[in-house]
């Protein structure tokens, strides 16, 4: 059986992600900086909050090299919300700061819109799949997912954008490169379609 590890982020949606993976029939492991990751088959990096603050805490706990090494091993690696943003090369929240550089991309603030398109972007919005991927298999295209964010990823290579959403502007809401994938929305709060995405990820072999 696959063994899924969830990084115990200082600011995050840990319990809801853990519950969602558990509901899909797996028994996930919460990871702290001293955890042995050798037996893990899958890694999830959830996150809620400020890019620079979360990255600083990851740095303090020694996580960046561990996450990069896990991804380099070919094992499936998932980032959720700020966890997805941290997969990028750089983020600009607060000031420009480095991400994990697993996907060539820059995280920038969403453009301010009118009263109907206020930032942060909070609530349900649709995701258009732009490229096929095993994690998206069997999931209804154009379904709504739950978002809470003020910043969004802009990929350097269009082939890394697997899904897009429109909120005043078009932005990447699902990103993927090799065995690494990220969701800007919260699949664990997105009902049946979100749970299906998590189930697909937890049963994915990391190959496209």
UniProtKB/TrEMBL annotation:
One Pfam family from the record: GATase
Keywords, sorted A to Z: Amino-acid biosynthesis, Cytoplasm, Glutamine amidotransferase, Histidine biosynthesis, Hydrolase, Lyase
The protein's name: Imidazole glycerol phosphate synthase subunit HisH
Top-level taxon in the UniProt lineage: Bacteria
Pathways involved: Amino-acid biosynthesis; L-histidine biosynthesis; L-histidine from 5-phospho-alpha-D-ribose 1-diphosphate: step 5/9
E.C. numbers: 4.3.2.10, 3.5.1.2
GO MF: lyase activity
Domain Glutamine amidotransferase: start-end pairs: 15-201
Function per UniProt: IGPS catalyzes the conversion of PRFAR and glutamine to IGP, AICAR and glutamate. The HisH subunit catalyzes the hydrolysis of glutamine to glutamate and ammonia as part of the synthesis of IGP and AICAR. The resulting ammonia molecule is channeled to the active site of HisF.
PANTHER family reported in the protein's UniProt record: IMIDAZOLE GLYCEROL PHOSPHATE SYNTHASE SUBUNIT HISH (PTHR42701)
Reaction(s) this enzyme catalyzes, per UniProt: 5-[(5-phospho-1-deoxy-D-ribulos-1-ylimino)methylamino]-1-(5-phospho-beta-D-ribosyl)imidazole-4-carboxamide + L-glutamine = D-erythro-1-(imidazol-4-yl)glycerol 3-phosphate + 5-amino-1-(5-phospho-beta-D-ribosyl)imidazole-4-carboxamide + L-glutamate + H(+); L-glutamine + H2O = L-glutamate + NH4(+)
Subunit details: Heterodimer of HisH and HisF.
Record keyword Lipid metabolism present: no
Active site: 81 (nucleophile), 186, 188
Gene: hisH
PROSITE patterns per UniProt: GATASE_TYPE_1
Subcellular location: Cytoplasm
Alphabetized InterPro entries for the sequence: Class_I_gatase-like, GATASE, Imidazole-glycPsynth_HisH
Cited Gene3D superfamilies: 3.40.50.880
């Amino acid at each position: 059986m696959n063994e899924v590890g969830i990084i115990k982020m200082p600011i995050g949606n840990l319990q809801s992600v853990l519950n969602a993976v558990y509901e899909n029939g797996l028994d996930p492991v919460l990871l702290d900086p001293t955890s042995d990751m050798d037996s893990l088959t899958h890694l999830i990096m959830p996150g809620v909050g400020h890019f620079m603050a979360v990255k600083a805490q990851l740095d303090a706990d020694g996580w960046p090299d561990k996450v990069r090494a896990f991804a380099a091993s070919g094992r499936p690696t998932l980032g959720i919300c700020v966890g997805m943003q941290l997969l990028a090369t750089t983020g600009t929240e607060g000031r420009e700061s480095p991400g994990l550089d697993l996907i060539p991309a820059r995280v920038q603030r969403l453009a301010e819109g009118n009263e109907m398109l206020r930032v942060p972007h909070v609530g349900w919005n649709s995701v258009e799949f732009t490229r096929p991927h095993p994690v998206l298999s069997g999931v209804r295209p154009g379904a709504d997912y739950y978002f809470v964010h003020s910043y969004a990823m802009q990929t350097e290579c269009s082939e890394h954008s697997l899904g897009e959403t429109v909120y005043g502007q078009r932005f990447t809401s699902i990103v993927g490169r090799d065995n690494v994938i990220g969701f800007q929305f919260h699949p664990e709060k997105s009902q049946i379609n979100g749970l299906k995405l998590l189930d697909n990820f937890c049963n994915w072999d990391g190959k496209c």
